[in-house]
Amino acid sequence: MMDEAERRYMDNEILRLIASDLGVSRQRLAERLRERGVRLRREKPSSEQALEMCRRYEQGESLTRIGERLGFNTSSVRMYLMCAGIAMRDTHGRER
Fold it and tell me: Which of the four pLDDT bands, split at 50, 70 and 90, describes residue 46?
C-alpha cells in the first residue's frame, strides 16, 4: 500500500486524493511518507537545511544547484536566503 502511495505522490498526485483512495487521513499518510524518507512538497526546510543553503550560496553555488542538492526549487531557495538577510548576486555572480 505504501509503495503505491509513494509512487503516486512522486508522480505529482495530491496527498488528499491518495489518502482518500486508501481510506486514511491526509495527516496520517503524510506522516507515513515522511517515515519512508519522502520529502513532501511545500514543506519548509529544516534549520539545518536553511543554514546549508546560506553556506553554499556564500561559497558561490547557484540557487539552482543548491535547490537540486537539497530538494527545493530555485525560488524557494532564493526566498529563504533573502529572509536570512543574505545579499543576492546578479546572474553574473556580482552582488546587487
Answer: confident
